[in-house]
Amino acid sequence: MGLLGKLFAKKKMPVHLDDASFTEEVLQSDLPVIVDVWSPGCAPCKKLEEIMVGLATEYDGRVKVCELGTHIAPQTAAKLRISATPTVLYFQKGREKDRVMGFRGSLYHQQAIEELFEV
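User: That's the sequence. What structure does it adopt?
Assistant: Structure tokens below.
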């Protein structure tokens, strides 16, 4: 995609998850999935939000990008053993392949997607 295409491309938003939708959206997904786990009042989580929108737009149709608020899905956050936010989880075929705690830039996540999911 050229520079103008990138500037005017419609942004794809991450899929919002809750306790009820996690299994269907993540564990049963045919696509690889990235889950951004965040919490209210987390400054690094706010910075990561823009990166996740960029990844959702860039990898649309190849990787599903989701967001899970710990206050919205406390049971799922507990099952995933989330101990800090932000935490980004990488799933493929219903299994967690990797996770990273703390803020990482866009390039880090792009490289992780390319290496983990070979897209």
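Residues 43-58 form the longest helix (16 residues).
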